[in-house]
Amino acid sequence: MRVAAVQFAAGEDVAANLATCLRMIDAAAAEGASIIVLPEFCNHLSWYPDRETAHRRACTLDGEFLKAVAERAAGHGAYVKLNVTMAREDGRTTITSLLYGPDGSLLGQADKLTLMGAEGDHMDPGTERGPVIDTPVGRIGIYACMEGVTADVCRDLTLRGAQLLLNSLNSFATDEASLHIPVRAAENKVWVIAANKVGPLLPEALTPAIAERLGVPPEQVHGAGESQIVAPDGTVVARGPRTGEAVVVADIDLSLADVKTRPDGTDILAMRRPELYRPIASPPVERTAAPGADECRVAVVAGADPLPGVAEAAAAGAELIVLPELAFGEAGRAEVAGLLAEALAGTGAHAVTSVRDGDAHTGLVVSAEGEAGVQLQLHRTERLSWAARRGTGVEVFELPFGRLAVVVGDDSAVVETFRLAAIADADVVAVPRSAGEEWETSLGLPERAAENRLNVVSAWREGGLILDLTGDFTLWTPWEGPFTGRISHPIVTEAGPGVTAGVVHPAQAVNRFVSKNTDLVGGRAWRTLGSLTETAL
């Protein structure tokens, strides 16, 4: 099946925008695409002076704009997904994704659940989860932009059977293309087609003032392009340019999205424990814990003989030292705690690894005084089939530098684990693990830090990652350094064998506002996430 993501600019002239949409649908159909995805806000720029204007310029289901798109879909016998603002009969103005079928019928619509920044000034969030649309070509889920910056909405669509996720974007953030788009495919083992805007995203006359308020250079408030088609393993099979109109086309095999197993044979959906995820689908609670330290010195110790590295890192001033899982082989819990305590003697450092503790894979936090915390692996996998006894939740340990959570082994491949750590107000997460699948390192861990505002320190036998939260995060507040286009991506330090030192900033985990009124954790669409807690898949 051939599919397409099309990218283009849209302005304030609704008629001109419609003409562009129809022209780009024609261009994609000429390439043989049977599924065509358009960007977000196809009918008008996302910026409005007031609510009345936003409502007046919005589409209606029986209006000219959407009727023309439906007719063009029917003319080409193609599925067309787009996103527009919608004037609802109850007076609301929603940001709505729509999928039209090859006969021009409306197959499904989904109001955007999580709004970004100023969108919330004049538009209304959705109140119900979007549908999974069963079509002759496969099961399709639809979403838009900010809904893909965190894992929840795409996870919900996957759990309800989606094989193909269609994402419409209106974003100037370059980490959409480098991180948020492809990780949604890999973590759910589904196909993703994502279409982003290019060109100005704000009215030309207002751009300098709005950009100043955002803390972004005016020339960078343009759509970031790089529309893409991503395979279930996270491979980007086709990508558009950073600027300029484009039709991005690829031939895909949707049946690949039916294979949900990791290399060890573990099913990524069946391994989940929905009974643990109820906090994600519950009303957010304000953080009461004080912020962590402004700075924490950390180290990753990888390789075959960890003790000299632990002693070296502790002597050099590391406050948190993370080792791979089972770093001491078959040694038991008490023995490992004793060895680490001896290596940490005379320092205030804490070290984290895991051990085989009977029938449990257990994460250990150890200080010079001995065992300081225990976290059992939460999810069972075929790789460590002996680990039948599992933890009952994510523990958070109060340490001198802040609140520490430990994600043990293959728990790091489960998106909900880190979400629970964020909801429990962790500042830093230590992840002793194996190397896992390639996407887990290149996309998964950075995304867990980005979408949850967590500092992450991870180690496996061959190396590790130190993921540090930058203070340059919240749009609508002054940007401390040059704006690079990346908004939520953590600062990455890659570790090799031996000792790799770095720094994280626990206090930054308190700030979860990516933009005005847009809280990555507290602003989750919790009312629509019941599928995350349902036992039956």
Automatic annotation (TrEMBL):
Signal peptide feature range: none
UniProt KW keywords: Hydrolase
InterPro entries in the record: Aliph_Amidase/BUP, C-N_Hydrolase, C-N_Hydrolase_sf
SUPFAM superfamilies named among the record's database cross-references: Carbon-nitrogen hydrolase
Domain CN hydrolase: 1-254
Segments forming a coiled coil: none
Source organism, top-level taxon: Bacteria
Short name of one Pfam family: CN_hydrolase
Protein name: CN hydrolase domain-containing protein
Organism of this sequence: Actinocorallia aurantiaca
Lineage of the species this protein comes from: Bacteria, Bacillati, Actinomycetota, Actinomycetes, Streptosporangiales
